[in-house]
Design goal:
Family: Belongs to the exosome component 10/RRP6 family.
Cofactor: Mg(2+)
CATH superfamily of one domain: Ribonuclease H-like superfamily/Ribonuclease H
InterPro entries: 3'-5'_exonuclease_dom, Exosome-assoc_fac_Rrp6_N, HRDC-like_sf, HRDC_dom, HRDC_dom_sf, RNaseH-like_sf, RNaseH_sf, Rrp6-like
GO molecular function: 3'-5'-RNA exonuclease activity; metal ion binding; nucleotide binding; single-stranded RNA binding
Radius of gyration: 33 Å
Largest sheet: 6 strands, mixed
Structural class: mainly alpha
CATH topology of one domain: Nucleotidyltransferase, domain 5
Pfam family, one: HRDC
Strand content: under 5%
Strand order of the largest sheet: 1-4-3-2-5-6
Shape: globular
Bound molecules: adenosine monophosphate, manganese (II) ion, zinc ion
């Protein structure tokens, strides 16, 4: 607390003390913005320092807390702070119950409030800065002197030609970018996949593999195992089994096996000798933006025993975010790699990154691990996370700046952490900042290991623990954000808004509009329509488009462009019957999902409710009321003629999310680990839930169809197994009978010594021809050959055709499934790399 006073005095130099100038003051006591900012920043830094020097919760704090004087002091200070924060939040129109000492609004909830408010304030600041730069008003980009402005930048980066999903194919927006940053996405060789489908690893070669990758090549050869010497039906069966394996492989972490079997070398579990970092001035630092240099970096890395890695990422002007920079430091050299330029080439670093003999040192790698997978197809085997080490050592503060100060006495400046890392050429300040993130990290790694060794009483237990925690981070899989029918509820739950049915509908429609547009335009949802604006529109339900604009200050560009669309969505929401929905956030969030006996409409009011809208059990056991909560309310109304324009539009927005995964799936089931499927914290759980939310009717159909195919396949396999010899004979006899005069003899099993002949195409064709005028038997029944005379195989009896038809049937079913698989990015489209 003392330090804050002294800073105030230090900052007095910025205060305006000349009474003559008072009229020109920017605000009371400050002559201009600069003075105000400097004073403000000084105060904030002092406060942060003071708070950091308070006793830490968990150790000293509890002891201090046992003194009444300390307790009282903390409480009054705490109340004062909360009051101050509440006022700031109120001022910005955020929810603010900071001082509410209600047990329900616990620490976590207050933390949420602070995070939300920060978002709101930062968003305002960002957009106001854009505004001040004239970006929004004039729609003109800010260009450096001598820069040739681009002609027109169309915002629809990822839109396919002729894609008329929303009926707006002819519209292209003339959206110019904020500031003079070129969208890096434009130059990506492989277009970003924002589709609402699960992420599949971007890996097609696997260095340092113990368990090989189901590589593209082997996948292709496995696609149709016709060249196997087995009957076609068996080949199909094998193919189906393999297809299922592929789906599992596709979702798996490519290095799961290697990470699970990672054994650390003995020398990593002993006390190290710290190796001092080289001074910045004496260290070579290269900017890598071409493949040749990258190959050279890789060569160097593979010869080291450890190197440090960090990434910089941008997430505002992209749906999934973009990794912009990779910093790597060895003991001798620093590299700053342009991951925008080398995005499609960086996979080559997997050679060093997955080498279990090379330690990769990161600080706080949780996000880095995901970004590496998402953008670059890179994985880490053998990582040491200095953040985890700091936690294990209970160092109190675990940020990189703290470790740098502690071990290297370096004052780092985290100002650029949130800079726009897409900027090229990279300004020198940002270059230097990025470099400092890894330059000292190997030394920090040494020092932390020494401490871990010593704190662990000369035993490797603590070191092992850090390696173990780091491995748990490496094994994390990147999951794409997926839109599900109740994703909007997750957001609403966080906001704890009590909405009526109309507001809830508006929120749901806006949420899906925003998600769809963000994916299509490759923008973050926060850029398309920030949460607090979306809540405000849903809350107010403006009658006029102008009212929507009024809810947003400043107005996001895409909201301005699509205000009519938004207006129709709000109108559609206003047409809902007005009912209050009781929200008991926190406990019974699914109140209206779970209470079928308290329908939102009167039990006899069927005026607006179709049959399918009544509470129904979904396969995951959840009961839901489609008409209110389910996004399908619009499409369940049978006659589109009865819908208003607004309803139809809303329906179309919503329709685009119907069954986004269907085309990618061989079956209704997804093949991922059962644990993941039932662990609500995983995104896979969300995906599987989303799949389960398909209409029950369609599901039943599919289940029936699948059951039928399964039964047929089972009967067939059984049949083949028990009658293999009969079949060969049968085919042989039939074949013989087709030959005019025994000319041009076909190769047969007996001649070549093969026990299982390939399916004979001629025979199949002939059989097909014959079958044109006979009705195809629907159900396959094994023929009892024991009752037969082999003469009946002379081409007139139908069972050979039956056999063939069953094959054909099964084949058709399965090749459908294959088609779906083939369209997955994992199998194809890798040529750009
Ligand atoms: P760092 O590991 O500190 O270099 O941060 C890597 C990236 O994480 C930055 O480029 C930012 O995109 C993101 N980032 C870091 N800190 C924050 C933060 N406080 N809030 C949001 N994003 C952050
Ligand atoms: Mn980092
Ligand atoms: Zn960094």
């Amino acid at each position: 607390m003392d330090s804050s006073n002294s800073t105030k005095q230090n900052n007095n130099q910025f205060l305006n003390e000349d009474p003559a100038d008072v009229d020109n003051e920017f605000c009371p006591g400050f002559k201009d913005v600069d003075a105000f900012v400097k004073y403000g920043l000084g105060t904030v830094v002092a406060a942060t320092k003071a708070s950091a020097s308070l006793p830490q919760v968990g150790d000293e704090y509890d002891l201090y807390r046992s003194f009444p004087g300390f307790q009282e002091f903390c409480e009054t200070q705490g109340d004062g702070l909360l009051h101050c924060m509440s006022q700031i939040m109120h001022h910005h129109g955020c929810r603010a119950h900071m001082r509410d000492r209600n047990k329900l609004t616990g620490l976590e909830e207050r933390f949420d409030l602070v995070v939300d408010s920060n978002d709101v304030i930062l968003e305002k600041v960002g957009i106001l800065l854009d505004d001040a730069a004239g970006v929004n008003r004039s729609q003109q980009p800010v260009m450096p002197a001598g820069f040739q402005p681009p002609k027109i930048v169309v915002s629809s980066w990822n839109r396919k030609g002729g894609d008329s999903g929303s009926g707006r194919s002819s519209e292209t927006f003339r959206l110019l970018q904020a500031k003079n940053v070129t969208r890096p996405q434009l130059k990506f060789l492989e277009k970003v996949d924002n589709s609402n489908t699960p992420f599949t690893p971007k890996i097609f070669v696997k260095p340092n593999a113990i368990k090989p990758l189901p590589s593209c090549k082997s996948l292709r050869s496995r696609q149709r195992p016709e060249d196997l010497d087995v009957p076609a039906a068996l080949a199909d069966f094998i193919h189906q089994q393999r297809t299922q394996e592929h789906v599992e492989d596709m979702f798996a972490h490519p290095y799961q096996y290697e990470l699970d079997h990672l054994a650390l070398p003995e020398n990593l579990l002993s006390k190290p000798e710290p190796q001092m970092y080289k001074p910045l001035a004496e260290t070579k630092c290269s900017f890598i933006d071409n493949l040749e240099d990258l190959v050279a970096v890789n060569e160097k890395l593979t010869k080291t025993s450890e190197f440090a890695v960090d990434l910089e990422h941008h997430s505002y002007r992209s749906f999934l975010g973009i990794t912009c920079l990779m910093q790597i430091s060895t003991r001798d050299e620093d590299f700053i790699i342009d991951t925008l330029e080398l995005r499609s080439e960086l996979y080559i670093l997997n050679e060093a990154f997955t080498d279990p003999a090379i330690v990769k040192v990161f600080h706080g790698a949780d996000s880095d691990i995901e970004w590496l997978q998402k953008d670059l197809g890179l994985y880490i085997v053998n990582m040491f996370d200095t953040h985890q080490a700091s936690r294990t050592l209970n160092l109190g503060r675990h940020s990189l700046d703290h470790l740098l100060k502690l071990f290297c006495n370096v004052d780092s400046d985290k100002r650029y952490q949130l800079a726009d890392w897409r900027i090229r050429p990279l300004p020198d300040e940002m270059f230097q900042y990025a470099r400092a993130d890894t330059h000292y990290l190997l030394y920090v790694y040494d020092r932390l290991r020494v401490d871990l060794w010593e704190v662990g009483n000369g035993q490797p237990a603590l070191l092992q623990m850090v390696w173990h925690k780091s491995k748990d981070i490496s094994v994390k899989k990147y999951m794409k954000p997926l839109f599900t029918e109740d994703s909007y509820m997750d957001l609403l739950r966080k906001q704890k808004k009590a909405f009526n049915t109309q507001q809830l509908t508006a929120f749901r429609l806006l949420y899906s509009w925003r998600d769809k547009l963000a994916r299509q335009e490759d923008e973050s949802t926060g850029y398309v329509l920030p949460n607090h604006m979306m809540i405000k529109i849903s809350d107010i339900l403006p009658k006029e488009p102008q009212g929507i604009i009024a809810c947003c200050n400043p107005v996001p560009p895409l909201v301005r462009q699509q205000v009519n669309e938004l207006h129709l969505l709000v109108q559609q929401a206003r047409e809902m019957p007005l009912l209050k929905v009781r929200h008991a956030w926190g406990h019974a969030i699914h109140w209206f999902f779970l209470q079928p006996e308290i329908p939102l409409f009167g039990p006899h009011d069927t005026s607006r409710v179709s049959e399918s809208d009544f509470p129904s059990f979904t396969p995951n056991g959840k009961i839901y009321l489609k008409s209110i909560v389910n996004i399908n309310s619009v499409d369940t109304v049978k006659d589109p003629g009865h819908l208003t324009v607004a309803q139809q539009k809303a329906g179309r927005v919503v329709e685009s999310f119907q069954n986004p995964f269907r085309m990618y799936l061989p079956s209704n089931d997804i093949h991922i680990s059962k644990n993941a499927k039932f662990d609500p914290s995983t995104k896979i759980y969300e995906i599987s839930k989303r799949w389960k939310l398909q209409s029950v009717e369609q599901q039943q159909k599919e289940v029936e169809a699948k059951k039928k195919v399964k039964e047929e396949a089972k009967a067939l396999t059984h049949y083949i197994q028990s009658h293999l010899f009969d079949i060969i004979l049968c085919l042989h006899f039939h074949q013989e009978s087709l030959k005019p005069g025994g000319k041009k003899r076909e190769r047969v099993a007996s001649e070549t010594g093969e026990s299982t002949p390939k399916p004979n195409k001629k025979l199949m064709k002939a059989a097909e021809k014959k079958n044109e005028d006979s009705t195809p038997p629907l159900v396959f029944k094994p023929y009892d050959y024991s009752q037969s005379d082999f003469k009946v195989f002379a081409g007139t009896q139908p069972h050979v055709f039956m056999f063939y038809l069953t094959l054909k049937n099964a084949k058709a079913q399965k090749s459908n499934a294959c088609a779906g698989n083939r369209s997955m990015s994992f199998f194809g489209g890798k040529s750009v790399r």
